[in-house]
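Review form for a predicted model. The reviewer records the input and the model, then writes brief findings.
Reviewer: anonymous (R2)
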Amino acid sequence: MKLLYFVPKIKNAGGVARVLSIKANYFVENFGYEVHVLSQNEEDDLFFYEFNSKIVFHNVTLNGKGFTFFKAFREQINRQISEINPDIILVADNGLKAFSFPFITKTKVPIVFECHGSKFIEEKFQKTDLLSKFVSSTKYRFKDFSAGKFTKIVALSEESLNEWNVENGIVIPNPSWIQTTVVSNLKEKRIIAIARNSYEKGLDRLLLIWEKVIKKHPDWTLDIYTDDVESLKNTIIDVRIQSNTNICPFVKNIEEKYLEYSIYAMTSRTEGFPMVLLEAMASGLPCIAYDCPIGPRTIITNAENGFLIPDNNIEMYVEKLSFLIENEEVRMKFGRDAKETSENYSVEKIMEQWEEFLEKL
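Model under review:
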């Protein structure tokens, strides 16, 4: 079987790239599939994750705006599809252009939309004036209309699928790629967060929380692994929390880093199915996150393997994070349950679902 993945970026350190590296490698190494990956505007970039040498990568260069951009997008996509001639196309892109695929592609092969984020994902703060509301409403209506035109939609959870109100959807979660018996001892006075410095990831909300927490727990440290190190370093200086906060670049050996921490903290505004929560749990870390649309609630069971905080309730987040800091026994219990949770998402279990789905398709 020949698969063609369409993604905005595959060489960066993002969650989608991580998931696709796991799945694409498994398709090639265990099922014998031929896998092609088509990304945009990253021809000279280096890969952050490791991919099997048999995977074929393609790049399209897209410039301009509006009609010029869209015309180039349509022409290059169809050219690549014609040359590659895949059996199935999988679109893993949350951007608005991805929803044009059913209308612009000149092919009869099945087109699958992999939903890696909330339908309501926003890259920046949304204004509340009438024009902005109209634009947002139109955008969401287009997404809904387009979603039903794909051959299938693969959502990462039932909550995600329910956002779309479609009849062509199924649920296949992301796999937990960290499979080890070694877990953190949860005794280090260190908290970890991993996220791009973007609006939807909400690191600005985390820093506000941390500013309050360290007043009571000045001996604890927060380490944030991100793509925008210098900007965040300036921010923590501005809010005067640099003595308790470290800003670090993304690292490839993240499975080793998790073992150095005692709590994982997430403050995203929207999510899909957060790989970082699965990774942290596989390492035995209790997690705390805002109950944002839609990912954390699928993975975290409140007061069992971590805490789910009502979205944007900063005072409760401070309270529960402080509670985890102060109660080692609770951290240990949550950590054990977190490890058990991660085992439900083993690579073998999830990829069996993918094989069955693709073969039927």
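Findings: The longest strand covers residues 34-40.
Further findings: The chain is about 40% helix and 15% strand.
Recommendation: see findings above.
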